[in-house]
Amino acid sequence: MLQKCANPGCTVPFRSLREGKLFLAETFSNDLDPDCDGNRRKTRKREHFWLCGPCSTHFTLYFDATLGMLTVPLCERAALRSSATRSAVASAA
Ligand SMILES: [Zn+2]
Question: How far away, in angstroms, is 82 Cα from ligand 1 center?
Answer without folding.
Answer: 26
